[in-house]
């Protein structure tokens, strides 16, 4: 391609480096985060949830894509600590070893579920999510 955009990683000359040392290369297909103009899907968002001791809520975010999209959800480690971690789509029997939250996604919704509880976890959590609208085969 004789046109487009490229940005190299620090320490590499964008004019001569190989593709694996590029941070951005517009000639390569990338996954897209949905926005309100694409199939009516809002592909990213932030919100809060307040939970009490022992409560195991499920947050439901509707996408209605008709297929299971790739998603990424970040949840605060502890209420108010402003440190977020990527939630797992792991088997729920293994997820407690990873975090006290898990995600699942189907053809219409993204679900964020509290799967374990400790006294120190009651409070208000900030979370953010991304729904990637490219249909993966």
Topology of helices and strands:
Layout: E1 6-8, E2 22-25, E3 44-51, E4 58-62, E5 70-76, E6 84-86, H1 95-98, E7 101-105, E8 109-114, E9 123-132
Task: Quote the beta fraction.
Answer: 35-45%
Q: Which bin fits the share of residues in helices?
A: under 10%
Nearest-integer average pLDDT: 77
Task: Say how many strands there are.
Answer: 9
Strand order of the largest sheet: 3-9-5-6
The H/E string reads EEEEEEHEEE
Report the radius of gyration as a whole number of Å.
19 Å
Would you tell me the structural class of the helices and strands? Answer: mainly beta
Q: What top-tier CATH class of the largest domain fits best?
A: Mainly Beta
Gap between N and C termini, in Å? 26 Å
Largest sheet entry: 4 strands, antiparallel
Outline the low-pLDDT stretches: none
Shape label: elongated
Count helical runs. Answer: 1
Can you tell me the CATH topology of the largest domain?
A: Immunoglobulin-like
CATH architecture of the largest domain: Sandwich
- What is the total number of structural domains? 2
């Amino acid at each position: 391609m004789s046109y487009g955009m490229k940005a190299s990683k620090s320490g590499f000359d964008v004019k001569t480096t190989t593709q694996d040392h590029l941070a951005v290369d517009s000639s390569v297909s990338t996954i897209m985060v949905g926005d309100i103009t694409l199939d009516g899907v809002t592909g990213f968002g932030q919100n809060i949830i307040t939970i009490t001791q022992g409560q195991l809520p499920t947050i439901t975010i509707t996408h209605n894509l008709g297929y299971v999209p790739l998603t990424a959800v970040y949840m605060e480690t502890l209420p108010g600590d402003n440190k977020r971690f990527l939630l797992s789509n792991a088997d729920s029997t293994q997820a407690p070893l990873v975090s006290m939250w898990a995600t699942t996604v189907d053809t219409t919704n993204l679900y964020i579920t509290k799967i374990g509880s400790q006294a120190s976890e009651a409070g208000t959590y900030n979370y953010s999510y991304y729904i990637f609208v490219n249909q993966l085969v």
